[in-house]
Amino acid sequence: MTLTGPIKIKSKAVAQEFLDSFDSFLFDCDGVLWLGSHLLPSIKETLKLLTDLGKKLIFVTNNSTKSRAAYTKKFAGFGIEVSEDQIFTSGYASAVYVRDFLKLQPGKDKVWVFGESGISEELSLMGYESLGGGDPRLDETFDFKTSPFLVNGLDPDVHCVVAGLDTKVNYHRLAVSLQYLQKEDSVHFVGTNVDSTFPQKGFIFPGAGSTIASLACSSGRTPVYCGKPNINMLNTIVSAKNLDKSKCCMVGDRLNTDIRFGVEGSLGGTLLVLTGIETEERALEEDGDHPQPKYYAEKLGDVYELTSS
Ligand SMILES: O=C(O)[C@H](O)[C@H](O)COP(=O)(O)O
Ligand SMILES: [Mg+2]
User: Please, which residues have CB within 8 angstroms of residue 67's CB and are 6 or more apart in sequence?
Assistant: First the structure.
């Protein structure tokens, strides 16, 4: 970023300068690589260009609905080969927090999940039994007199609620999650991410932050959020991939998660793309609400299109 503010990547020279400045790229996914099942323009070509240049590619998503393994299949569906150890999700970061910070005992302590398989699968890989989540009994209309999660009492071995994006959110899931959160002395509250909205092709939908806020409001508790911009997530990635932070660039579509993650994590640089949540006006505003990106571009694919022109 110059004294005049963020640098727009809109020429071959600036695109080449951008490429030459970093040896590792951390890519956000929703709004950067794709919008749901819609791959954004020139993404495959851009990732291949970076790979051919010997750059390290890492994918860092706040989307907790899929596990790291499931994300490798999503990439493969687009014809992009990515290994599981290149992918970090907010669901994985939350499971690491449960294991390494809360130190819950696998096989003994259980987790109530308000969210999808991307959370429960990562917890299961670490040996934790999770309840709730995609359990089809939670799809039933809620009745406190008959809910199987209440009539026999809460599970006394649950010592943490992990809440994330749940596209099947309903009153049943909210009501039972709240019962566990009311056990404040014995049940921790973890949120996967703060994203208020979720970008789809042609739409902006409610994000994890919005549904988790419902539980925060009803319980009067504030969760520990483990996804971007949490510095523990960055430190996990930097040590796992042996990165030189000064040569890393965070590429994202949201200022208060992706760009904050890169700036507060002291990475070498950040690139905001305008294919997701943010606008050029927001990218340029010097608002204390969020850090400014070093670079910005209409889309990530411009890096390929400009340097190969
Ligand atoms: O609502 C959410 O969880 C987020 O909007 C979404 O999943 C963000 O994913 P990311 O842009 O970090 O890949
Ligand atoms: Mg995004």
Answer: 89, 91, 92, 117, 118, 121, 122, 125
**For 7-62+229-307, which CATH superfamily applies?**
HAD superfamily/HAD-like (3.40.50.1000)
CB-defined site of ligand 1, < 6 Å? 28-31, 61-63, 165, 193, 195, 198, 207-208
Q: Is the pTM of this model over 0.95?
A: yes
Domain ranges of the chain: 7-62+229-307, 91-225
The fraction of the chain above a pLDDT of 90, given in percent, is: 96
Known binding residue 85? Answer is no
Give the Cα separation of 177 and 191 in Å (integer).
12
CATH of domain 91-225: 3.40.50.1000
167 or 1, which is more confident?
A: 167
Stretch 166-192: mean pLDDT? 98
Closest C-alpha to 89, from 34, 167, 27? 27
Q: How far is the CA of 30 from the centre of ligand 2 (A)?
A: 4
ipTM: 0.97
Exactly one of 20, 23, 30, 302 is catalytic; name it. 30
